[in-house]
Design a protein that fits this description.
The protein is an alpha+beta fold. It contains 18 helices and 12 strands. The protein has a 5-stranded mixed sheet, with helices on both faces. A 3-stranded antiparallel sheet has the order 4-12-11.
Length: 418
């Protein structure tokens, strides 16, 4: 089933909280992009940025455009927010702090997620891919997200963090709950349930930390509890607090699986819609690298994030008051015709295909970007070598997307194959 027809003709009609808009982001972006480089959307109280150059400018100036949530708190209701104080730890993300603190925390995890470290894990990751395919290759059709795109990145990031595979079902539940508040528009009951699940995850991570303090392993959690971070407030190194370790680990857990799940599923959808692309990468696996980048660009799993303007400024001639929140739309910048020729179409020969916004750029680029790229690349190399005639399962797919303002993810996708 195709998406509902986009009914809006002017930017002022568009509300990012509207389900029709969330299903048709790119039509909305096109209208907003032509209206203004920094379009104020009163429905969400943010300035919306849709042009690649403006988004890049903001991302490369973390001193002026901060990642603080002071103006747009994630958890809205006091009833749910108070649960962290009563039963858990503060919901913090040390890996997303503003400069200069941000870089000191990133230095603790970046080496474990760099290309060299990931390549050392290639045998493990390839084995996981083949093991997953082995469980369903004789069936001829599968729920692709549930049977492959979800478990692969979850198994891999759990291994890197040092969490047992037997706990994956719980980790998936907690991961989904962690992401839920980002969709905005939750009821107090929905938000409270999501917070309760997140606190369960916090306690699970804390229990793992206690075990690893007694018996450390070669994994990220063991490293974080044994290392020190440079604290700019005291101008000296110190051990990480429990809440800093917990916040870093749950950030890596979610960032290391959710968006990669969405990207792999979006890649399959792109193949369904582009028979020539499928034919070309099947015949020439060397093109898979660019296919992964074009998937990330065209169907960015993270459609946008936010920044706060620290001082009065201008973007494209639009005056932005200090304290304003910017909705920076990666998905729009990645389809900006000012930046890309034929931006809607996958081009396997596009030069500098990896230069897109799907993982952000600059100081706050996604720490798991390299891991995600390798996982996707190896997944498609093996899938295309073991499966033939990939096609949508008749009567199963409607290709609708999860609701929410920040992420771009299919609800489900069903695959048939020979």
């Amino acid at each position: 089933m195709e998406n509902k027809k986009f009914p809006f003709k002017e930017a002022k009609e568009i509300d990012f909280m509207d389900a029709i808009v969330q299903e048709n982001w790119f039509e909305a972006y096109d209208l907003i992009r032509e209206e203004s480089p920094a379009y104020f959307m009163p429905q969400i109280g943010m300035y919306v940025l849709t042009r690649y150059a403006d988004i890049e400018h903001v991302l490369r100036d973390p001193e002026q455009f901060t990642s603080s949530r002071d103006t747009e708190p994630l958890i809205k209701f006091k009833e749910s927010l108070s649960l962290y104080e009563e039963k858990g730890w503060p919901r913090i993300q040390p890996l997303s702090l503003n400069v200069p603190k941000h870089s000191h925390f990133r230095k603790l995890v970046d080496p474990a997620l760099a290309a060299g470290a990931i390549k050392k894990k290639k045998t493990f990751i390839v084995n996981v891919i083949n093991e997953l395919i082995d469980t369903w290759i004789d069936e001829g059709q599968i729920a692709f997200m549930e049977r492959f795109a979800e478990p692969l990145p979850m198994i891999v990031i759990a291994e890197l963090l040092g969490l047992p595979r037997m706990d994956l079902p719980l980790l998936k539940v907690w991961s989904s709950a962690w992401v839920l508040p980002h969709s905005k528009g939750l009821t107090v009951e929905q938000e409270t349930e999501a917070v309760k699940k997140h606190i369960e995850l916090q306690h699970y991570i804390f229990d793992s930390m206690k075990q690893k303090r007694k018996n450390p392993k070669d994994d990220i959690i063991s490293h974080l509890i044994q290392t020190e971070v440079f604290d700019v407030d005291i101008n000296a190194k110190r051990p990480l607090t429990d809440e800093e370790v917990i916040g870093s680990v749950d950030h890596l857990l979610i960032g290391g699986n959710e968006t990669t799940t969405f990207a792999i599923s979006n890649g399959l959808w792109l193949l369904f819609k582009n028979a020539e692309v499928y034919k070309n990468i099947e015949a020439n696996p060397a093109l898979i690298k660019n296919f992964v980048e074009e998937t990330l660009r065209i169907e960015s799993p993270t459609q946008g994030l936010f920044r706060s303007a620290k001082y009065d400024c201008e973007i494209g001639g639009v005056e932005i008051p200090a304290g304003s929140t910017l909705s920076i739309r990666y998905g729009a910048g990645n389809r900006d015709p000012r930046r890309y020729r034929c931006p809607m179409e996958p081009d396997l020969n596009r030069k500098n295909a990896g230069r897109h916004l799907a993982f952000g750029i600059g100081e706050h680029v996604c720490p798991g970007a390299t891991l995600s790229r390798y996982e996707q690349r190896w997944a498609w190399e093996i899938l295309l070598s073991r499966l033939k005639n990939l096609r949508p399962t008749p009567g199963k797919n409607d290709f609708t997307h999860m609701k929410g303002i920040w992420l771009r993810a299919l609800n489900e996708i069903y695959l048939s194959f020979d």
